[in-house]
Amino acid sequence: MKIIDLSKPIQYNKSDPWFMKVKIKHKPHRKAKWLIRFLGLPFRLFPKNFIGWADDTIKYMGVHATTHIDAPWHYSPTTEGQKSKTIDEVPLEWCYGQGLVIDMKHKADFDSITTKDI
Question: What pTM, to 2 d.p., does this model score?
Fold first, then answer.
């Protein structure tokens, strides 16, 4: 079986609606000798020209900004008379299967997708 990753990466996308915008602060490499010393790490573990780590901070990200699944527990404590599954209890098999991609990029944000569209 061929598996195609349909996940949406965590990144700023100009065309996303406001509630899906992601704001990321990129921090460049910087001198980190003070941090190495502060952490008590031996300098010999680092390359001679090491200047520091680059880092990113996600400043804002709505839940619907990237790919996610909601656990059944999110909607109700029970499902069909049984305790609903939390996200760590969802079987992996629920997360893949046969699929079909339908391009709806021509639809404006918040426009309904109808049976006729499909």
Answer: 0.51
Give Rg (Cα) of the chain.
22
Torsion over CA: 84, 90, 93, 98 (sign): positive
Nearest-CA neighbor of 21 among 58, 60, 57, 56? 60
Cα dist. 35→38, 47, 57, 64, 107 in Å? 5, 15, 18, 35, 50
Longest dimension (CA), the chain: 65
Sign of the Cα torsion 37, 42, 48, 52 reads: negative
CA torsion through residues 80, 64, 9, 59, sign: negative
pLDDT in tens, 55-83: 889 988 887 778 888 899 999 999 999 99
Question: How far apart are the C-alpha atoms of 47 and 53, rounded to whole Å?
Answer: 12
CB count within 10 Å of CB 65 equals: 21
